[in-house]
Amino acid sequence: MHYMYSHWAFKYPENFFNQWAKPLYVMITAPIAQLGFSAVKVFNVGCWTLQLYFVIKIARYFNIKSTWLLPILALTAPMNMTHTLSALTEPLFAVWLAASIYFLIQRKTVLAVLLLSFLPFIRSEGLIIICPAIIYLLLDRKWKFLPLLLTGHVVIGLIGYPYHGDLWWVFTKMSYAVWYSIYGSGPWYYFIKNFPIFDGLAQSLLLAVGLGYGGVHLLLRGRWFRPGIHLDESWLIYGFFLSYFIAHSLYWWLGIFNSCGLLRVFVGIMPVILIITLRGIEVIRNYVNAERDKVKNVLFYAVLTISLVISFILQNYWRKEIVYDSMQESFVAIKSYLTEKDPDYTNKTFYVHNASAIYQLGLNFFDKYLVRDIRTLLNGEPVAPGYVLYDDFTMSWDARITLDSLKRDKRLSYLGRFTGLTPMEGEVSTHLFEVTQLLPVADWSRDVLAVADTARWIIKDGRRAIFLTNGPNESSPWVDLHLGGFKGADSLYAILDLYSSVASEHLKFPGMLTVGATYQYAPLFWHGIDINAADVKPGWNQVTMSIPFPEKRYRDITYRLGLLNTNGDSLFVSNFNIVTHK
Questions:
Q1: Is 205 helix (H, G, I), strand (E, B) or coil?
Q2: pLDDT tens across 309-325, in order?
Q3: DSSP label at 381?
Q4: What span, in angstroms and rounded, lies between the C-alpha atoms of 484 and 116?
């Protein structure tokens, strides 16, 4: 996904100002992404290498020995290795963080604080890092530098203002600023329990020893608030790690900020993880007194290295990366099949959830008519001629759609199962369907009241209706529509049958038609449209209201439509249809 935002940024400039894709990440990687996916991988390896350079310098500042172990620790942390060879944002975040720490301990405070101010525009967790950074600056009596932490938001906000038309877009367009998570939640100890999957068992134990050192040597001895080297280590290493770890644990436990319980987010703070782990190694080495005995020293490092390698091999996560590669093979197999069956397949609509499939098939992710999320098959919007891809790897846990439900869908024809082979995990399948039954956009309509609770229906003047009034029954059912499906249509229409007890040349009915829009789960706007009608007669009247589509740059949004009445007067509704024609 991040690669595609960068790769297409020059054709779709709005990508540079997308808070999910992260503006600074896109600005830095967009030129590189023009050279292909492998070029971005090389860039991330470069970030990994530069990060190690800074980490070695930081470790030496704190008088931590055996810095030659740091590359080994980085290579044998399973998810750090696999996710560096990607186009994800974590490697850039990690090197940016390492550079910020390095310049802080070198007392180049202005440069360091400016770097930190832009960190949230590589990954949102930069906001988490800024919190302990503020405490550090205050304790180090550098409060005068605090205003510089606003620099990133001010600069990025001004750059994106011409596009968004809102100076506050860096806050209002944040994708994760919601008090829920579509992925659910997990136990508070989830990351503690599963951290060995990310870091390996051996490294996780060494990290725990390093954390114990920090708790005793820095916290209990009161060195965490005294300016100097101990303050630096307390807040720039332990403070950054603990705030990041605790924040993600809370988000997943409480089910907020669209937390997904992803372990890979810790790649972003690998610099501080490596420092704490190396500190743990030093504690054990001093405890066994290996430094003074050459034989002990050799044995200690031999056992350590073997333990790290065994821990890496036994950890199953890197094997899952082979499964992921196998899934890519299934997409390539589908591409070969479609190239022969339908040479014009790239001009057909694809319903897909896995971004890797879009990349492998050579599709334009940002053409929301030709590339749609598979979940739009279920929201009632018009389907288009094309294909549906269902992969076993992500569909069941992320999109929450079952294979059987697609096989039962009369609009689809099953074309077959495509697999990628892996010697460790067996077959990973992707299933291909073709859309065979179409409904022209011009004939599309949606009965909003069809899903209304039966207990809400009453008989009003001989007709079955529901009523809306201030309180529990103040809103109608809501309908969500993905606008990418309405290519060629300029607007929607709401056709309502409403009851009036009086005659009037011009009547404003109680309540309003509400239109809300979201983009990648972040709110764009919400407004109500008054329900006005002319030549109203006593009894039932049909009212037609126009619902214009937003300007083109917002085509990739979801509309939520419904009726809302917080007035004391009741609104009686017999029919409520959303259509593409009057």
A1: helix
A2: 888 777 655 555 544 55
A3: P
A4: 37
* CA–CA separation, 190 and 250 (whole Å): 10
DSSP-H helix ranges across 288-417: 294-314, 317-341, 355-360, 403-408
- Looking at residue 490, its pLDDT comes to 66
Residue 113, token pair as written in the block:
């604080």
Q: What is the pLDDT of residue 159?
A: 93
Look at the chain and count its residues. Answer: 582
The span from the CA of 99 to the CA of 36, in Å, is 27
Q: How far is CA 89 from CA 5, 145, 424, 569, in A?
A: 12, 27, 29, 53
Cα gap 416→389, rounded to integer Å: 10
Rounded to 5°, angle at Cα 554 from 553 and 558 = 160
Min mean pLDDT across 5-9, 135-139, 545-549 is at 545-549
Contact of 81 with 318, CB cutoff 8 Å = yes
Helix or strand (DSSP H, E) at 552: none
pLDDT value for 553: 45
Cα 463 to its chain centre, rounded Å, is 46
pTM of the entire structure? 0.74
Give the integer Cα–Cα distance in Å for 518 and 190. 30
CATH of domain 442-579: 2.60.120
Name residues whose C-beta falls within 8 Å of residue 396's C-beta, 6 or more positions apart in sequence: 402
Of 201, 178, 152, the residue nearest 309 (C-alpha): 201
Name the residue type at position 72.
I
> Which own/partner pairs from 242-247 qualify as long-range (CB within 8 Å, at least 24 positions apart)?
243/128, 243/129, 243/131, 243/132, 244/125, 244/128, 244/129, 244/268, 244/269, 245/191, 247/125, 247/128
- In this prediction, residues 456-481 reach a mean pLDDT of 83
Backbone angles phi, psi at 310, to 5 degrees: -65, -45
Helices 270-287 & 37-61 angle (0-180, nearest 10) = 40
Residue type for 270, please? Answer: M
Instruction: List 434's β-bridge partners, or say none.
Output: 387, 413
Among residues 48, 11, 45, 49, which one has the least CA distance to residue 30? 11
- Cα of 6 vs its chain's centroid, Å: 15
| Residue 388 bridge partners (DSSP) | 351, 433
Confidence of residue 397 (pLDDT cuts 50, 70, 90): low
Residue 218 sits at the vertex; the CA angle it makes with 148 and 277, to the nearest 5 degrees, is: 85
pLDDT at site 99 = 97
